[in-house]
Amino acid sequence: MTAAQQPSQTNNDLVWSLDNFNQRDLAKSFVSRFESRLCVYSPSVEQVYTNYSINFPSSENGKMVVLPNPYAFHDTFHNVTANAVRDTGLFIVPGALIKKKGLYVIVKYKNQSVKPVPLPIRHALKKMVRTGGDNDPFLPILIKGDLREFNSETPCLHLHRIKLADLDSRSEFEKDSIKNAIFDKMSDLYRDADEIAAGL
User: Fold this and answer.
1) Pairing relation of β-strands 103-107 and 63-68?
2) Phi, psi of 21 (to 5 degrees)
3) What is the mean pLDDT of each run of 10 residues along the chain (200 residues)?
4) Would you kindly state where each structural domain of the chain is located, as residue ranges?
5) What are the backbone angles phi and psi of residue 129, rounded to the nearest 5°?
6) How far out from the chain centre does Cα 138 lie?
7) 50, 45, 87, 80: which is closest to 175 by C-alpha?
8) Cα separation of 23 and 60, whole Å?
């Protein structure tokens, strides 16, 4: 990595540990499929990155580094406060988890007796767009810790969301820009779902 590509020394939000993964190579392969297809949030600097690359430094086998494109400053949103970021309980999982092909979205309940109902990712994305409406759109993002293992053999991505109504310091124009950027990513994810899932 060049100096321009390295994340800030104080921004550990962009350095994700893979040390506790049972299937590290599977996790790397899985998350790489979503590179720049889901926005990444850094709470320490209150920024959302829409244009970035994912790297796995050869010198540090147990780490993944998110590298925002330093030449695409317009693809980074600032002053996105942590109070506007919510846990969703939603997970993107490979269909192999449920003996199917493709990508699925599952709600993982704390109550183990409640059985989750997997939704094909395209159906889930449609539901996300329809659920929120203009005042409270569902805007999925990733933060450090969202790359996980659903079980000992299956990587997954947990989703957080931005709640625009809680971005008190941002203008309506700025909120619309954030919403449109994330909706564009959701549209790309919908379009490319089969390509992303190929080989899983």
Assistant:
1) unpaired
2) -85, 135
3) 48 94 94 96 97 92 92 93 96 93 88 81 94 86 96 93 93 94 96 91
4) 12-197
5) -65, -40
6) 13
7) 80
8) 16
